[in-house]
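[SOLVED] Need 3D model of a two-part complex

Original post:
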Amino acid sequence: VAVYTLVAAEDIAALLSRYDVGTLVSAKGIAEGVENSNYLIETTGGRFILTLYEKRVDAADLPFFIAVLDHLAMKGNPVPRAIRDRNGFQVQTVAGRPACLIEFLPGVSVTRPGRSDAHAAGAALGRLHWSLADFRARRDNSMGLPGWRHLAEQCGTAIDKIRPRLAERIAAELAFLEQHWPAELAHSIIHADLFPDNVLMLDGQVTGIIDFYFAAYDIRAWDVAVTHAAWCFDDDGAHYNAARGAALIAGYEAGFGLSHAERTAFPVLCRGAALRFLLTRAWDWLNTPADAMVTRKNPLAFLSRLDFYATASPKTLLGA
Amino acid sequence: VAVYTLVAAEDIAALLSRYDVGTLVSAKGIAEGVENSNYLIETTGGRFILTLYEKRVDAADLPFFIAVLDHLAMKGNPVPRAIRDRNGFQVQTVAGRPACLIEFLPGVSVTRPGRSDAHAAGAALGRLHWSLADFRARRDNSMGLPGWRHLAEQCGTAIDKIRPRLAERIAAELAFLEQHWPAELAHSIIHADLFPDNVLMLDGQVTGIIDFYFAAYDIRAWDVAVTHAAWCFDDDGAHYNAARGAALIAGYEAGFGLSHAERTAFPVLCRGAALRFLLTRAWDWLNTPADAMVTRKNPLAFLSRLDFYATASPKTLLGA
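Solution:
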C-alpha cells in the first residue's frame, strides 16, 4: 500500500488549471489500492482523486473503464466518474503516466462486514448488473478461467513453497473447473473484484463502488460468486458465515436476481472465484520480497474457501 | 512513503466517538512522512489527521511535542494542534500505538521553491523562534553534534559503499566541527527539520508548519542553517542558489534575526546541517533494501552541500 509516483504540487496545480474545478488547496498521496498512485486533492471547488495508472493497468483499457463508470453514474449508481477537462478529455498524462482526475466519494470500507452490510453490497451489485444490461462495449476477462491456467503455469511448482503439493491441488481444481464451467450462463460486464475494500459505506448505505480496473465481460453470476467469496468468511477464510451469505444473496435478489441455472451452478462459480484469488495472491506472494513495504495477502485464505466451496451445496451458499 | 499500520474504519469511528468532532465520513491512509502512519479523516465536523506513532517517535516525547505545538498555535503560528477528547486527553492508543487526532491544515509543499517561497519560509521560521523564546520545556537534540559522531560510528566503514573514502571524510569533518562548534550561541527549542516538505503554502503564504518530531533544544541559528541547506540548492544539491539563500535570510531577519556572532558562525553551522543529513541519509541508505517501496534519498546530495559550505563565506550564504 503505497504511492509509487511522486507528483510535485506545482505539477498538480498546473494540471488542475486545465479543468473547471477551482485551484489547489491540498494534495496528499493516499494508499488506495496497490495498483496505482493516488492523490486526494482538495481545490476551492471540491475534492477529487488524482489517479496515475502504473504498470498493471493498460492505458488502452482506460476508455472502456471510463465508459463503464459514465454509464453506471448516468443510471444513478454511486461510482466515481472521471472529470472532463475544458477540452472534454478525461485522460491526461502526468509524470509520464496516463492519469485521470476522478470524483471523490464519501464513505469508508467496512473491515468486519455485518449482515446488513452484506445485504447492502449485494443490492448495490444487483443494481450494477441491472444498469449494465444494456451496456454494449466489451473487454475480455484476463482474470477468467483461461487466465487462471496461464497464471498457474507461470507460478509452476514454486507455488509449493507456500504449501506442499499446492501445485497438484491447483492442477486438479483447474481440470475440474474446465470440465464443469457453466460457460452457457448469462454474460455481462462485471466488476470482478467487489471486495469490502471497494465498497464505500455510510450509515449502512453504499455511497461508493470503486476500483473497476478488473471490469470485463464474463459470466454475470461469477461476479456474485466473487463477492460471496470476498464478504462471507471470517478469520482469514477459515469460517463461512452462512447468515451473511444469505443476506448478500437476498440483497442481490432485491437488486437483480439469480436464475435457476445460476443457483445450481453457484458452488462451481464460487470454486472459480476462490481459485482466482488463490492464484493471484500466490503469484504476488512469490514475487513480492518479504521485506517490501506492501502487505502480502495470505493466499491460503482462499485455499480454505476453495476447500469449503468444493463440498458446499447451493442452499448452504445461497441461504434458500 | 507508506502507511505502516492499517486501522479499520470501525476502529476510527469508535475513536472519533471520544471527541466532539462529528462522525466519520471518509478515511484515507496518506503517505505523509516516512516515520508514522497517517490517515486523512473527514467527519461531519471537519477534517483531521490521525497519526499513529511508529518506532521512530518515542511516546515519552509526545507530551513535549504537543506542548510545543499548543504554545506555537496560541501565539498564532500555523501549526497543527492535537485535538483534546472529551476527557481532555490528546494522546490515545490505536492499534497498540500511541496516536493523536490532529488539526488538518490546508496548503501544499512546494517542490521547486522560488525566492518568495524561501522568504516566506524564513519569515515563518523567525516567527516560530520568536514565539518559542519564552517556552521553557526542554528536549535534548539526539540529532545534534554528539549524535552525529554516534551515527558515524554506527555506519562505520560500510559508508564507503556509498562513496570510496567517505568514512574518512566524515571523520575529518566531525573533528573540525567538534573543534569549531559555536556552542556558546543562543539556544532555543528548534524545529530542526524545516525542509520544504514540512511547510504548507497557499498563494505564497505559509499555511502550515508540520512534522515537529525532531524539535529539540539546541543552537537556534542551527535551525536557520538546516533550513538554508534544505531550501537553497538545486539539482540534488549540486548548485547553490544565492538569491534564494538571501531571500530566506531576509525573511528570517523580518521574523526574528541573526546576531553578529551567529552570522560569523553561519558557515560552520551549515556544515553541521549538511553533515547531519548526510549521516542520517547514509544510515537509511545502508539500512533500506534497494527494492523496498520507500524512496531512498540520496545521501551524496548533502556531501555536495558540505563541500560547498566548507569554503563559503558568511556573505555568500547570508546575502549581505
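Edit: Residues 260-287 of chain B form the longest helix (28 residues).
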